[in-house]
Amino acid sequence: MRLLSYLISELKHSHRFVLFFIFNLCIGLSGFIALDGFKSSIDHTMKKKSRQVLGADLSLSARRPLESKEVDLVFKNLPVGSVETEVVELYSMVQFPNGSTRLVKIKAVSENYPFYGGVRVRSHYEIQSNFDSLLKSNSSIWVFSELMAQGDLNIGSQLKIGEATFLVDQVIVDDTTSGMGASFAPTIYMSVDSLKKTNLIRKGSVAWHSRLYQLPPSTHLEALTESLFRKIPSQDIRLTTHTEASAQVGRLLQSLNDYLGLAAVVALFLAAVGTGFLFRSYFQRKIQEVAILVSLGLTKTQASFYYFTQIVLLGLMSVILALILSFFLVPMIHALTSEFLPFEFEYVLTLKTVIVSLFVGVFGSLFICLPFLGQLKKIQPVVLLSESIDLRATNSVTSKNSYFEYRFIFLCLPGFLMFWGLSVWQASSLVAGTVFVGAFLSAGVVLIVCGSVALKLIEKIQIRPRRWIALQWALRDLARERLTSISCFLALGLGAVLLNLIPQVQESLEYELSSPKTSKLPSLFMFDIQEDQLAIVQAVFDEAGVELTQVSPMIQSRLISVNNEEFDKGKGAGQGLSREEEREMRFRNRGFNLSYRDGLSESETLHSGQPLVGRFEESSGMIPGISMEKRFARRLNLKIGDFLKFEIEGVPVEGKIVNLRSVRWTSFQPNFFIQFQPGVLEMAPKTFIATSEAASESIKVRLQRDLVEKAPNVSIIDVTRLVEKISAVVRQMGLALQTMAILCLISGFVVIFSILSHQMEKKRWQIGLKKVLGADYKVIQRYIYLQYLILAMFSAFLGVTVSVVFSYILSQVLFESVWVFSWKAPLFSTLLIFVITLGVIFVSSKKYLRQTTKSLLNVS
Amino acid sequence: MIIVKNILKKFTQGTTQVCAVNKVSFQVEKGKTLAIVGPSGSGKTTLLSLLAGLDRPDSGEITISEQTLSTLNEEELSHFRGTNMGIVFQQFHLMPQLTAVENVRLPLDIHGTFNAREKALKALDDVGLAKRADHLPNQLSGGECQRVAIARATVVEPQILFADEPSGNLDTETGKKISEVLFGLVRKKHMTMILVTHDLELASQCDSMIRIEGGVLH
To answer: What pTM value is reported for the model?
Structure first.
């Protein structure tokens, strides 16, 4: 107990170290904790609301009408007491009474819908699940309030949808089942019977046909879903539980959270590096005290326990502060990510967040300090005796023999494993997390190698003139104090890597998500054009004097086999999948849209293999060629030379992958994962996709109005408006990332400050000696400035270079996005390191240069 | 009683091995004082570090109060040192953040002794520093710091006291006063003391004296 009071008294005495330690760790932890708290709160809300998001316990859906045998197969395998309802969702154009048009999402529902949740209409405050009035009427629709303002509508106004006209019966102000799509296309509810009147659903139309099920409360949903999944023969039918449905709603947010999570790990890692250096300086000052305590009978175990307790105490204080700070940060993250969240949530500090925070804060602190604490074993009280070897030489934990010894590296392992584990956890991906950590390890190796080579070169530099004595000393110290120089170089370089990496990757990500300024985007994107409507659509465009471009056929199909083996539709949905498994699962469990084209479009580039040349002739006896998008192929484990067999309306079609291509999806051009050689699919039932570059807003409005009148089932996306929406989302994402980058920046500042302060402390004795030997103030000052500025600038330059290379690798491997070089971030990081270095040297050197020579030499 | 038998300690300096203590044997009766003298680098500090269990000999045996040090592991040795030995250093080695009384009670606290404050105050009183009990080391003079260090070394009432140049860091006048305090306490408490010094006047106050040179007793 008394030791505890010594411990507190010691911490009080070292208030500067304590404040920096807590501040540093708290900054690093707060981003991490706030993000975890934010995610936990969303998970908590989603779990509570998941049934309301789906409106059911389970759904069966496909992008084609479900066959009765498929529906029957599922229903008869459900527990007794289960109830079902039918829902069809699709995008369509509507025409307002004033003649204007707009893309909406149609949700056609039937009896029993929904089993959970529902909508809040303007006339009722409560959420209601009673759709009776809608279902009984063949001409009523319920519309989202957003449309009322856009179309200047009132209750009773008439809307033309497809080939029918409907009356607005209710205005929806809230919908528990609406996802992100609602912000791009507002929803209109109607009955399934009413949908038939519109004649919107035709062969090949893009629509989601679902059956929703309410199951008895005792049902084991996961087991049931797994068994049903195995029984459904077709891979284009998807089973979705309510928990998966709610997870899908927040998928965009999930991706952002993954990225923010990695940024938070970077901030935490920076904080850890800073904390490590702070502790190293502190511990070196304490070595003599430990020796005294040991001479008084304190055992090494007690000494270790003493410092462990101290670190745990500091870690705890940092966690408590960070938890308090998280209450301010979470609303900020919420505000920054509100665009991606379709529902409100309340910040709940969950037990999981508290446990995670404690674990990261306390164990993290211990792991960071462990390599230095490991030096306790080496401390011998014999150094306290009058004629023993110089304390600085024997006890320095960074001295030549100890710093890079195996023990030190071994004790770094727990911290490293924790960093790796956190990265994998935050990225929700073993691959992404490992690549991320691997990049840092490689950065360390590159920095050490480059630093060693540079020091070797510096050693060879001969400076003779007397007036350059400061530079001579600076270079000589850099070269001779090799391990100190390299460790300082490594830490500063890693600081520069981390500081620069986040903004660098962010720049690329923003560029990728926003529309590339260099390419011309179409202004209208049309889909669901039936074959017999192609001429009508063409005529509408001809009449307006606008060119209809990129007319591309789209054929719905199912993949039957790969290399004559039945296509594996995957493991089905499940909890705890990594991001890669989730993606693969989504890609496997779906229908496939095929197209055919001779050559590549301007948004495509050939990645590998041979281009598709000429038209396929059946008489040739060859197999038709297939061009596949490379990421799609990777996710399905397909490669050039694989034979694929598709089924289109019961007719088998075979092809062989002859090339892999990259597609720039942000071009908004009609692009497909799978393209056949021309001459194969021309006779298959199909719809068309097309784009147009309408010049003015008035022509766009006219084209949309004419199309709704002449081809009412054709859906039109106003790309300009969509890009505006996406840009807003990207800006929001950028803001969220910048907030996290600021945390990195503050942590980075502490790292640089701690390293340089420590170095200056070590220089103290040398300064004193040089003073004794007659060096004047200016020469010593110049020598210190030169030594550290050379070191800082070289490490900043190399760190920034390494981070630019890694940002390229991360963009390519992790985010699979375009990489762009941002000159601002490297310049800023280098300048920041320069300014901080200058500031710290200025403050520290002034302090030491003003001290008396006696006190400078009195280091023990 | 301290029995030293044939102890040998070698160090490596660069590529050559230096024998700091070479086959040294002697014994000190309980309650007696012994001075180890010799020039700088003669091996006297190394010998003291071996006797105090701060370092281990390469060969030979040291027995203190019937306990052979080589049979103790690191933890046991720390405990044995804490309860049976006191060490006074040339440079005092006080904890800068602790007051005089807190510094003195440190060994008592390490071993969980009751009434630590009272015992520490008594020890400070014994060295004539009771009034300065709540002062920090930087508020004390060199002589006062050494008195605190002596109080700390003797507060556990050790059987053996080791003193490493106790007046080496002080002026002559203060050094004399410190030696008076030290010898006074040793006699009063019937402690055995081994003193390392190159000050022959100080050494002459001990019951016996041994001279070491080149690691060998003369």
So the answer is: 0.67
